[in-house]
Amino acid sequence: MIRTRSLLAEGSRLRRLAPLVLPAAWGAVAVAWKFCCPLARQPGLPTRIATSVVFLTVGIGMVLGLRHGLVRELTRARAVAAATQRVLLRPPPARLDGLTLAAGQLSATRGASVGGDLYEAVATPHGVRIVVGDVRGHGLAALGTVVAVLGSFREAAHDEAELAGVLRRLERALERHLREPARGEQPARPDAEPPHPVAEEFVTLLLVEVRPDGRLAVLNCGHPGPYRLGARAERLPVGDPLPPLGVLPLPAVLVPHTAARLLPGETLVLHTDGAKEARDHRGRFFALDAALSGVPGEAPAALVRRVRAALLHHTGGRLADDVALLVVRNDRVRVPAQPAEPGLRRPRSAPSPRC
User: Do residues 113 and 143 touch, judged by C-beta distance below 8 A?
Assistant: First the structure.
């Protein structure tokens, strides 16, 4: 086992040194030309021109060799980062319990495909449960909190019978995540409970449960409400907002808002505040409601692509905050009332006896 690890470490070192082989070879050629070739030691203009050409060629070869190695390492690093980001913020399934889904995100950090926004949708025995959230701050620095919240949601959505129980699990997961750095700063008392990290980092989020009959149960922690697209685009009421997770403890009693319904053929659009607050070079906000009202009956994936393109066009590709969109269309078939079978008649009621 030790021998195998040693060979693997040696192979890794050799791979890191591989880009330097070509520049080193070119350098050896230049040194050999200068000190070993008789022509290089002769005086005169032709000799100086030949020597300059050799060293220029060597310099170009060294630059190209280093560039090739760096490009190869950068390509490998980008592939690893893209795979990691896809696992972290995985695309939702195209179909989930009769619902059609699509999602998209834009990161404010250049070169990153995910940032401080999160979303997830899972089918459970209690209905399709959806979370969309926004971590304070943006970019790669917020990924740790995104991992903590999403990991807790993927477990709690299946385990908890009530939507309120899912939200409390998310609150506890975020609190544990925020306490870990504080524990590391107290080495003298490792068993002591660190102080609560009030308002240092928080998450606004929206929890939605789409029940089999299309009724929506919603818990809103300081997050923008979703849009429902039917004959027109309308903002759905989500009840009184709760405080964002991490700012204040949740109330003792959590009652989801259940006044709305997603009928067959209607679309639900959940988003983060980066979509509403995106500005152009003149400081004008992006008109999200107008963008959503563009094409009635549009497929979720096409809607995400169109809104994403409109956002990039509006901002000129310069986003100040991360953006996430999750589109859900109810494609469950409404079963019509069945007619009575031929030959079967409803029994007539017996005539009432006459007095």
Answer: no
**Same-domain pairing of 138 and 165:** yes
Whichever domain contains 245, its CATH number is 3.60.40.10
Beta-ladder partners of 233: 229
Rounded to 5°, the CA angle 208-239-307 comes to: 55
pLDDT digits (tens, 9 = 90+) for 92-125: 899 999 999 999 888 766 655 566 788 999 999 9
Task: Name the domain count of the chain.
Answer: 2
One-character DSSP codes across 274-300: HHHS-B-TT-PBP-HHHHHTSSTT--H
Which of 50, 78, 106 is at the close of a domain? 78
201, HSE (Cβ side, Cα atoms, 13 Å): 22
Give the range of the structural domain holding residue 300, as residue numbers without chain letter. Answer: 90-185+195-330
Q: Which residues contact 284 (CB under 8 A, 6 or more apart)?
A: none
**Would residue 248 be called left, alpha or beta, if left means φ above 0 and alpha means ψ between -120 and 50 degrees?**
beta
Considering the domain boundaries, does residue 225 fall inside one?
A: yes
Same domain for 161 and 17? no
- pLDDT tens digits along 48-100: 676 666 667 767 766 776 777 777 776 776 666 566 666 667 888 999 999 99
| Domain co-membership, 63 together with 118 | no
Strand (E) positions, the chain?
95-96, 99-106, 117-124, 127-135, 203-210, 216-221, 227-229, 233-235, 267-271, 323-330
Do 316 and 265 belong together in one domain?
yes
DSSP state of 58: H
